Amino acid sequence: MEHFDVAIIGLGPAGAALARKLSGKMRVLALDKKRQCGNEGFTKPCGGLLAPDAQRSFIRDGITLPVDVIANPQIFSVKTVDADASLKRNYQRSYININRHAFDLWMKSLIPDEVQVYHDSLCRKIWREEGKWHVIFRADGWEQQITARYLVGADGANSLVRRYLYPDHQIRKYVAIQQWFAESHPVPFYACIFDNAATDCYSWSISKDGYFIFGGAYPMKDGQARFEALKEKMTAFQFRFGTPVKSEKCTVLFPSRWADFVCGEENAFLIGEAAGFISASSLEGISYALDSAEILRSVLMKDAPDINRAYRKATRKLRCKLYGKILKSRCLTAPVLRNAIMRSGIAHIPLSQDDQPTATSGGLVKEY
What we know:
The chain is globular and about 65 Å long. The protein contains 9 helices and 18 strands. The protein has helices at residues 13-22, 52-61, 100-109, 160-165, 223-234, 286-302, 307-314, 316-332, 335-344, and strands at 2-9, 28-31, 49-50, 77-82, 87-92, 96-97, 116-118, 122-129, 132-139, 142-153, 173-182, 190-194, 203-208, 211-218, 246-253, 268-270, 358-360, 363-367. By secondary structure, the chain is of the alpha/beta class.
């Protein structure tokens, strides 16, 4: 049975960044559900926008994005829609439009050969015994077992590591649903949609490489019905759908309290969405995946006596920032507050066609 310094479960942005940073410094094993290349197998449903905080992480590491990761077009504003009040606003944003699956594969490709990576693999069981973490996984067509001094859960919303460490911990979850359509809008756009009848979270759309993606986060019980109902409602806001090219679903976490940020224990650590490190106001997680990976790298290299405590302390600033996103989300999803903010016109950039209210099949959409 092979023994490693660190076993990383999951190679999304968090796990891939950590594996790359620990290469050559520790003996690292990494397991990932995605295949090494191509579009077959597991893919992460995601709108695919790289926020400024994530961009800063790449600046810090001296990394530039390859052309085949970047999607077209690049959009500099978000059309915010309050479906309840029939309001629209345009706010400036500095996102980079990316192909999320290509981005994830590129992140994995940066991991040096010193790291033992198993692609298209499945972690089946973990447990701690005699001061070591034991991991059983299936890869290359057969079941294998290793031990590790440290275990890292970078395995997203349905994290096996988080469930093992915190079996009684409950965190709010939604089903994220996306559909892809052939783009038919005269001008591509990115949108953020609020409709409390559909969800107490939010929905979105993005134009990407000739496709129009419409999605949202909905209650687990009847998410599909709510998604379809919102699609019908959005035709009044000039959203064009047609026949779906493909549909995607996944679970997404929604931290709503300080206790939802869990860092790990007993030489096991959680990073990225597995730790609850995802923005409650936008569901953006790549930034916090990269930041938490860097924080854990720094902590592991110092090898403090109480290393879990050191990691919790080091992530406090990040957790405070994410708690601020929880407070922001409460304002955005509260109809009265959201309506007041949008009507105030703060930071709104009017478009030339916004000079007059626009007639639609559902009545008048109020634009100020």
